[in-house]
Amino acid sequence: MRQSRHTISFDLIDPARHPDPDACEAWRTLRAEHPVAWCEPDGGRPGFWVLSRHQDITAIYRDTARLSSQQGNMLSTLLTGGDAAGGLMLVVTDPPRHTEIRRILQTGFSARAMAHISESVRSATRNLMGAAVRAGGCDFATDVAAQIPLIAICELLAVPTDDRPAMLELTMTAMGADGSPESAEAASAAQGDILDYYSDLLEERRRAPGGDIVSLLATQTIDGKPLTDAEVLLNCYNIIIGGDETTRLSSAGAALAFIEHPDQWKRLKDDRGLLDTAIEEVLRWTTPATHIGRTATADVTIRGCEIKAGDIVTVWNVSANRDEEIFPDAYRFDISRTPNRHLTLGQGPHFCMGGALARVELRMLLDELRTQVEELESAGPVERMKSSFLTGVSSLPVRLR
Ligand code: HEM
User: Fold this and answer.
1) pLDDT per residue over 53-104, tens digit each?
2) Which of 3, 221, 288, 337 could be 246's S-S partner, Cβ–Cβ 3.0 to 4.6 Å?
3) Are residues 275 and 299 in the same domain?
4) Measured between alpha carbons, how far is 290 from 281 in angstroms, rounded to an integer?
C-alpha cells in the first residue's frame, strides 16, 4: 500500500541541535510510527529520506545496485553538491571499481597484518594507560583514546618511525577543527601537508615497495593499469579519516560507559572471558558514525514509501543500534549481550575495512583498563563532539587508581 510522506520535525543537520540518541524520544517515535520519513528541502538545500529501522537500513546498505555512494556518503557532502573524491576514494566509489580497489587494500588488512599491528597497539596502550594511572588521572579522550588509532594507522601505512611524531601532529590538526575559522584554516593546511607527505611516500614505495597499504596501492593494477596518484593519495586519506576519529570516539565512549555503569565495570574486571562481547557492546553503545548516506539511482519502494531515482537517502546507525525489534532491552549497556548485530561498522559491500583493527584497538584498551585500573571515576565535565556525522566525547577528565 502506498504511504503518504511523513515529514520529520527535528533538526538532523545542525550539530548543536542534534538529538541525543539515548535521551531522544524522537528516534523511538520514528521507528514505531514513521520508519521511512522525509526531511523537507530548506534554503536551497535538497530534501532527504531518513530511515530509522535496523531491517530497512541493512537492506539499503546491501543494495549497491540501486543506491550509490559515488555522490557522497554523509549529509555534509550530499547536501552541498557531492563528494569531490567520488569514484576515486573507496568509500565513495561504486562497484565494479569499488570491488577492485577493495581487493587491493584487502591484503593490507589481512590477519597477518593485524597480528603485527596488535603488538604495537598493545605496547602503546599499556604505556599510555600506565602513565595515566601513575598521574592519578588524565583526559581519557585526548591523552589515551586519541593516541592509539594514529599509531595503528602509521603501522598500516608503514610511516617511517622518524616521521611519526610529525604525522601524528598533522593528523590531529587536520581532524581537530572545532568550528572556528582559525582551526578550519589550520586543518585545511594540515590536510594539504598530509597529502604532500603521502605523495613523497608514494614515490619511495614505487621504487622500493613493501607489504604495506601505500605500497599495495602504488604497485597493484586494475585491468592492467596502475591507480592514478589521486586514487592512491585519496585512499591513503580514506584510511586516515576512516580509522582515526571513529575509533577514538569508541574508545573514549567505552571509558564513559563504564563510569556510568559501575555494575558492568565490575563484570569486566571480574571476567576476562567477557572481552569479546564487551567489544561488540561498546561498538553498539557508542555508534560513532551517526548516519550514512546514499543516492538512489532507481526508484525504490520501502514500507510503501516511494523513493525516486536521484533522491538522497540517509540511514541512521544511532537509531538502528537501539532498535527494540533487534536488541532486547536496547537502551541497556550489557557487556554480555549476544547476539549483537549492531550496524556501527556498516553492512554489505562497503562494510568497514578497518573493523578488525578497530576491534584490536578496543580489545587492548579494555584489557589494559581492566588489569591496570582498580577505580575509574569522572573528574570533570564531559565535552561532546559538535558534528552531524560523528558523535561521542571529545573531552573526558577521569580519576584513575
Ligand atoms: C569504531 C571505529 C569505526 C567505525 C565506527 C567505522 C565506521 C564505518 C562505516 C559505518 C563504514 C561504512 C561506510 C559506508 O557504507 O558508506 C566504514 C567504512 C570504511 N572504514 Fe570504517 N569505521 C571504524 C574504523 C575504521 C578503521 C580503524 C579503519 C582503517 C584504519 C577504517 C576504514 C574504513 C574504510 C577504508 C572504509 C570504506 C570501505 C568500503 O567502502 O568498502 N574504519 N567504516
Assistant:
1) 999 999 999 999 999 999 999 998 999 999 999 999 999 999 999 999 999 9
2) 288
3) no
4) 16
CATH assignment at residue 258: 1.10.630.10
Task: Judge whether 358 and 352 are in contact, CB under 8 Å.
Answer: yes
pLDDT computed for residue 21 by the predictor: 54
- Lining ligand 1 with CB less than 6 A are 69, 73, 90-91, 102, 153, 156, 238-239, 242-243, 246-247, 250, 288-289, 292, 344-346, 350, 352-354, 357-358
Q: Which of 343, 371, 387 is the endpoint of a domain?
A: 343
Contact call for residues 150 and 242 (beta carbons, < 8 A) = no
Q: Which contiguous run of DSSP H or E holds residue 97?
A: helix 97-106
pLDDT band at 8 (very low <50, low <70, confident <90, very high): confident
Going from the Cα of 87 to the center of ligand 1, the distance in angstroms, rounded, reads 17
Grade residue 17 by pLDDT with cuts at 50, 70 and 90.
low
Query: Can you tell me the mean pLDDT for 172-184?
Result: 71
For residue 110, give its domain range: 95-286+347-401
Q: Which H or E run includes 127? A: helix 111-134
Per-residue pLDDT band at 18 (split at 50, 70, 90) = low
242 alpha carbon – ligand 1 mean position (Å): 5
Q: Report how far ligand 1's centroid is from the alpha carbon of 155 (Å).
A: 17
The CATH number of the domain holding residue 56 is 3.30.43.20
Give the ligand 1 atom nearest the CA of 93: 40
Distance (angstroms) between ligand 1 centre and the Cα of 354 equals 6
With the CA atoms of 92, 94, 100 and 104 taken in that order, what torsion angle do they form, in degrees rounded to the nearest 10?
Answer: 20
Mean pLDDT of the residues in the chain: 93
CA distance 365 to 358: 11
Q: 183 versus 135: which is more confidently predicted?
A: 135
Ligand 1 mean position, distance from CA 133 (Å): 31
In this structure, how many other beta carbons lie within 10 angstroms of the beta carbon of residue 374?
9
